[in-house]
Write a structure and sequence with these properties.
alpha/beta; Nucleotidyltransferase, domain 5; 2 domains; five-stranded mixed β-sheet
């Protein structure tokens, strides 16, 4: 029986789960008060604070973390890497602490995994799996339209690859034989084209459909003047935290939008359907990447719970391929499964170098 601890740090919470093989013994979301987080200058300064909270949570649940076989953390903002497992090493920690250009809570995943490995048995491994910078782009996908600016492969890699592999399992065919389009729809939305087991192109959450909080693509001609009226930080917040549904409807709740539509709010219906319209356009765009040879379109993320949104999307893309839905996210299970494959010798963990 293998004992695995999974750690998934977010901006205001840390999700943890403890498994004995595939049996879930604990799943907890440790919330962090904003007032407490404001005391820390950088994300990595939160390490000791979050480590102590997770440790307390495990102790209250009666879990002996000294006997862990593996600790797997959410992968953070590394340079472009191949998909799969990476053992946490000093080189990785140095990058996340001192060299990354993106301060994101997921950067703590590797650090916290290493922290619990140091408290566990000698042969315990600390690892990450499918970090946000997994890069399997086809070379054509890297060309942006402006010399000197490359398209970057970043997004909801962990959940999209996990759902792609789950879809393959449900279809009864190897992931490496399928062509899939996977759309992760949430606060930010990322859509991906999977060809024979590789994620060869993406519609990123700042260049595709608008989502709950993000604007998606905008007309450069219209947006450039705002760059001279706001600071870079203000522009970032405006387009990534205050765009999308929040911009139009003043809420980040899909459930609230559905209630408004049900009550006859025509504007809410227009904006929600427009988002479905843009999602469908993005799926159609990725279908051309796969030359129309699409085995399945898969919708995941929090917005996949909406029957209304799903119906609007499906009626526009069903001519391309059958549409499957996996509401929510499967990141904790994906991290667990990656660790179990490494422990069983079914997959080999890579060494991170830069």
């Amino acid at each position: 029986m293998k004992k695995v601890l999974v750690i998934n740090p977010g901006s205001t919470s840390t999700k943890i789960a403890y498994y004995e093989d595939k049996c879930e013994r604990l799943k907890e979301t440790v919330l962090h008060e904003l007032a407490e987080l404001e005391c820390f200058e950088t994300i990595t300064d939160q390490y000791d604070y979050r480590l102590a909270l997770i440790q307390t949570c495990l102790e209250k649940a009666g879990i002996d973390y000294t006997q862990l076989d593996a600790v797997v953390g959410r992968g953070g903002s590394l340079p472009p890497v191949e998909a799969g497992a990476y053992l946490v090493n000093d080189c990785m920690i140095d990058w996340l602490m001192n060299k990354t250009d993106l301060q994101h809570a997921s950067n703590l995943g590797a650090m916290l995994a290493k922290g619990f490995k140091e408290k566990a048995r000698e042969d315990c491994i600390a690892m990450i799996y499918d970090p946000i910078t997994v890069d399997q782009f086809h070379e054509l996908a890297r060309v942006s339209g402006l010399n000197g600016v490359k398209r970057r492969s970043t997004g909801h890699m962990l959940n999209m690859r996990a759902i792609a592999m789950k879809t393959a399992e449900d279809i009864g065919r190897p992931y490496e034989e399928l062509n899939l389009i996977v759309a992760h729809l949430g606060s930010g939305s990322t859509m991906s084209a999977h060809q024979n087991g590789r994620m060869i192109d993406l519609s990123l959450d700042d260049e595709g459909t608008f989502s709950i909080e993000r604007t998606g693509s905008l007309s450069l001609k219209e947006i450039i003047p705002f760059c001279y009226q706001m600071t870079q930080e203000e522009m970032t917040i405006w387009t990534r935290k205050k765009g999308g549904l929040i911009s139009y409807l003043g809420t980040n709740s899909g459930i609230e939008v559905e209630k408004r539509i049900q009550a006859g709010d025509k504007k809410a219906q227009l904006i929600f359907e427009a988002m479905a319209y843009q999602i469908a356009k993005g799926i159609g765009e990725l279908a051309t990447v796969l030359k129309g040879n699409v085995d399945r379109i898969v919708i995941t993320g929090g917005l996949a719970y909406s029957e209304r949104l799903m119906d609007w999307i499906t009626e526009r893309v069903a001519f391309i391929s059958e549409v499957s839905r996996y509401p929510g996210e499967f990141e904790m299970e994906a991290l667990r499964n990656g660790a179990l494959r490494i422990l069983a010798g079914e997959e080999t963990a890579k060494k991170f170098i830069y």
